[in-house]
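User: Predict histidine kinase's structure from this.
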Amino acid sequence: MHSPLGWTGLGQWSTLVAAFAAMLLTVWMADRRRRGRETSRALIGALTLTTAWTLLGSAMGPFAAVTQVFELLRNLGWLAVVYSLFARDNRHTSVVQVRPVLAVLAMVELFQLMLLVLAVRFAAVQPAVAMIFQLSVMFRLLLTTGALVLVHNLYVGAISGQRDAVRWTALALALMWGYDLNFYTIAYLGRMIPQEMVALRGLIQIGAILLVAVGAMRGGSPLRFSPSRSVAFQSLSLLVIGGYLILMVAAAQSVAWLGGDVSQLAQLGFAFATTVVILALVPSGRLRGWLNVMLAKHFFQHRYDYRAEWQRFTRTIGRAGPNALPLHARVVQALADITDSASGVMLIPGEGGDLVLAARWQWPTIEVPAEAMPAATVQFFERRGFIVDLDEVRAGTDHEGEAALMPRWLVEEHGAWALVPLLHYDRLVGLVVLGRPPLARKLDWEDFDLLRVVGQQLASYIAEHNGQIALLEASRFDEFNRRIAFVMHDIKNLASQLALLARNAERHADNPAFRKDMLVTLTNAADKLNALLARLSRYGAGGVQRIEAIDATEIAAAVAARYGGAGGDCPVYVTQSQSCHVMASRETLEQVLAHLVQNAVDASQPGMAVFLQTRHDGVSGVIEVADTGCGMSADFVRNRLFKPFVSTKAGGFGIGAFEARELVRAMNGRLEVESREGLGSRFAVRLPLVVTAKGETIPDAQSGDKKVA
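Assistant:
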């Protein structure tokens, strides 16, 4: 065992095992980073270079030129890791010596390239080879000594909150460079490198990689051992890896029988092929899902580790901060994490009782119509609380009549997997559509029980969130009403004073011309203030003045004239003026149109026109206000446009669009919105036609023909 051949074999195989261990850790950390976990890019790069160095050392020997080059790159990679760890708590800026020391160490290591070229050039000159060897070993001693000093300062000087995070990586670096210090010290004193030291170096690399792996998996948390599903999963993974390594050793031993250069090429080819297989399989979500399913099926009585699931659930829902997902998206993610679903959407009851889209999570491609599900679906889920397996619906299975309620878009979307209702006191507050997981499986009783309980908990969070929003809006309305009460009081006093002044001026003014002008001016002012007072008194009341038959075309023209027509900064045009007699309140409709036009002007650049048009479709009269301004996103229109006290204008109350919609509803109409970001917006006020309201016929103003409702 102590013969040179035995040590050579040990060194070769230990280095090969270190190569595959480093490669597995590299792939795992790269996949972890791809899934959004916090992972150091410098550490991934250093592990990649370590993989290449150990693989080449096993295949071509530790003293080959290309192996020496990659050893240099490996050292530079780990120096970059040291710098990234210093930067973790911002000591790379406060400790000014860190950067110069790292730069000097990198420069010392780069001298190895020059020495390598000289060694190749003077390979036939024995004294030159010996001198170059001593210089190379001396530079490596300088590198390892300086690197160990940096690692010591890194750990000792770390703040208490960061020390746990760097401990394992610092231990790995201390082990690796500590052994290299002894390795090169013996080489410098003995003017040669003992074969035993070369063989043990591979084992040291394995130990360092294991320490890095422990630090990466712990993520700085206190070390605890618990025989949980996570440990079982890792153990099963290690068994798979161990079996793979046994297969690798057997195959390598078999190709070694070929002998000579053919053996070396065969081993390198085998290593390359297995590397490709690992890179293809290890990041696979399907493989991880299969391992999880097999583990839960054969090793545990229950599918889920409820403690771990509940901790993950609370972390997802409780996540806060400016970069956190909205509540509805976090609700979808919390349910999707339980079933390993890759995506999901959430539907909530709309104003008409049907279900509409509220949030997406990692599913931008699914096409959800404006009316996602009919109101009958809400009643079904409130009555049954049933979790729907969409694969069973597609297969023709109908347990409680759910198949007839599933819309076609959902059944044809094969990525949709399950529907989970969120019930709060037998009231549906949301419905989550879960996407299909990477490893498709059939939902069982344990899935249904856990999803039902989690759905009830999520429903309570959503109900609490909605209640907080309602309380906030009510308090803001109360504050607004108080302010309006003060304004009304002041204006009422002012109107009374002006009216009194007008009466006194009528009796006491001596100059007839002055008296006449004063009377006109003061009377107009009193009328305007009283009209303003009447409008202010309607805030929050939801009522309108007397509804009568009016000409919407005339009101549209009056509003356009108020904004200066084509002479304003944003010209307002009436582009189409079809006769349109509707049942409405004149002042209320004028107020609504004035607000919509003002919003269009505010959203447009100077010089860009705003267009009004009136038309009818035989049932409703339509007044449209269109602009080519900045437009609004679909999310803003759906969730914020008609929310009171949400305004994009500085100092705005944010009640204009809300009030306009409420006033139109009070006149038995509805307000429709279409908008595209960067293209503009179109608001359409639909009101009942006079002919529709009275059931009579009226002549069309343009053709004179009779129209019957």
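The radius of gyration is 39 Å.
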